[in-house]
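step=encode ok
step=design start
structure_in=
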């Protein structure tokens, strides 16, 4: 299980988001979307690129995302609660699957 690095995406955008191979045992993301007093401070998302010939499912904090073959999907990473707990990411298979975590800054 590997800890994915969270890449900051500024308001001006990010032209190159580095993707890494999905890990067979799953991955973790340090924390998810943060809120304070009901206001969202920033959103963390997981980008999943599936270059395989069949669909694959990534599950992020219990939320499944089915990514069709030769497509890219994106899913918000939920906040797991106290103490910036890590969010688990699992995959049904990792053949030709690459991922990146991104924090969308205001």
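sequence_out=
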């Amino acid at each position: 299980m590997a800890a994915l690095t969270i890449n900051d995406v500024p308001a001006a955008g990010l032209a190159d988001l580095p993707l890494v191979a999905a890990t067979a045992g799953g991955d973790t993301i340090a924390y998810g979307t943060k809120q304070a007093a009901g206001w969202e401070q920033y959103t963390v998302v997981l980008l999943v690129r599936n270059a395989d010939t069949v669909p694959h499912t990534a599950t992020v904090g219990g939320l499944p995302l089915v990514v069709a073959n030769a497509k890219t999907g994106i899913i918000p990473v939920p906040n797991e609660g106290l103490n910036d707990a890590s969010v688990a990411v699992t995959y049904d298979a990792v053949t030709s699957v690459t991922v990146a975590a991104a924090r969308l800054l205001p």
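step=design ok
step=annotate ok -> The radius of gyration is 13 Å.
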